[in-house]
Specification:
By secondary structure, the protein is of the alpha+beta class. It has three domains: about 45 residues, 2-Layer Sandwich (Uridine Diphospho-n-acetylenolpyruvylglucosamine Reductase, domain 2), CATH 3.30.43; about 120 residues, Uridine Diphospho-n-acetylenolpyruvylglucosamine Reductase, domain 3, CATH 3.30.465; about 110 residues, Enolase-like, domain 1 (2-Layer Sandwich). It is about 35% helix and about 25% strand. It is built from twelve helices and 14 strands. Strands 4-5-10-6-7 form a five-stranded antiparallel sheet. Strand 2, helix 2 and strand 3 form a beta-alpha-beta unit. Helix 11 runs antiparallel to helix 12. The longest helix has 29 residues. The protein is globular and about 60 Å long. Bound molecules: flavin-adenine dinucleotide. The site of flavin-adenine dinucleotide has 31 residues, from strand 2, helix 6, helix 7, helix 8 and strand 10.
Length: about 290
């Protein structure tokens, strides 16, 4: 297929990117792993591509005591190869291990992955579980949006065409280990359904706190609050994990789902339980090493 003609802008600052998007006729180009494929298939025909790959500020990763701030064009491969991320953001890291192939991750960006808003993507699920925030910028200024309000439906965000996602702030719960489990038709493919869990187990072996999210369940990622509540104060043993996972619910039909809602609802407790078991086993391994 021959691509429809389009204009191309390559701003070198966030302000210049906001200017290039201001008339609402531009579309952000990040890693291009989804957008260029959609253009090749004739599914998207942007009037103007605004290539944000030359903006140094968007490539920064900053760690603070209780959070990490990740620029929109940080590549998934860079995050995946970071020992510090594994140590300090274990749930994010656990999810990243399942995202696509190395070739895709080398180009794909965090901002692109989240803005693509694929219901099956792993990272949005752990972002909403952890309570991450998206920072959006336009000529009108900057605003922060909870990730749960940024990703609003299959392939839809609440950002408008004049806005650029500039960075993501992810809270980092201390002293917690994580696991991610998914069912996919092929290795490294998008999952049919997946769940990520981070748990903090106290010295007496009880769960102090938990963060659990699912992808593929509905048209947008879901924080499984019912599971988190069922875990708090319980012993970190197999029975309690299974019992908490059994309350997970919420499968819905949505366009492009890789399996029916009935199947996804049925396997959801198993997927959540396996993520929880990995998180608790990892906690024990860490105690053993310490
Ligand atoms: C073979 C294959 C397998 C894959 N497997 C998985 C998988 O298992 N799990 C998974 O999660 N993903 C998977 N992906 C998707 C891949 O991770 C996404 O294509 C990628 O994350 C999109 O990021 P990008 O930087 O390439 O974005 P682009 O393709 O450049 O952009 C995607 C969309 O987001 C918008 N956008 C990008 N950046 C911004 C921004 N900063 N602000 C506002 N809007 C923005 C663009 O305008 C476009 O609409 C796979 C892709 C392929 C091709």
């Amino acid at each position: 297929m021959v691509l429809a003609p389009f204009d191309y802008a390559r701003p070198e600052t966030i302000d210049a990117a906001a200017d290039a998007l201001a008339d609402g006729r531009g579309q952000v180009l990040a890693g291009g792993q989804s957008l260029v494929a959609a253009m090749n298939l004739g599914r998207q025909s942007p009037v103007r591509l605004v290539d944000i790959n030359q903006i140094p500020e968007l490539t920064e990763v900053t760690y603070a005591a209780d959070r990490i701030i990740i620029g929109a064009t940080v590549r998934l491969a860079e995050l995946r190869e970071s020992p510090r991320l594994l140590r300090e953001a274990p749930l994010l890291y656990a999810a990243l291990r399942h995202v696509a192939h190395v070739q895709i991750r080398t180009r794909a960006t965090l901002g692109g992955n989240l803005s693509q808003a694929d219901p099956c993507s792993e990272l949005p699920a752990v972002m909403v579980a952890l309570g991450a925030t998206a920072t959006l910028r336009s000529q009108q200024g900057e605003r922060d949006v909870a990730m749960a309000d940024y990703i609003v439906g299959p392939y839809r965000t609440s950002g408008d065409q004049t806005e650029l996602l500039t960075r993501v702030t992810v809270p980092l719960p201390s002293g917690a280990a994580a696991g991610f489990y998914e069912i996919a038709r092929k290795a490294k493919d998008w999952p049919v359904i997946g769940a990520g869990a981070q748990v903090r187990v106290n010295a007496d072996g009880f769960i102090d706190d938990a963060w659990v999210g699912a992808c593929g369940l509905a048209g947008r990622p879901r924080k499984l609050i019912e599971v988190e509540q069922a875990l708090r104060g319980k012993p970190a043993d197999a029975d309690a994990l299974r019992s908490a996972a059994s309350v997970a619910t919420g499968a819905e039909e949505y366009p492009g789902a890789r399996a029916g809602a009935r199947y996804r609802e049925r396997v959801l407790p198993v997927v959540v339980e396996r993520a929880l078991v990995t998180a608790v086993e990892t906690t024990r391994e860490q105690e053993h090493v310490a």
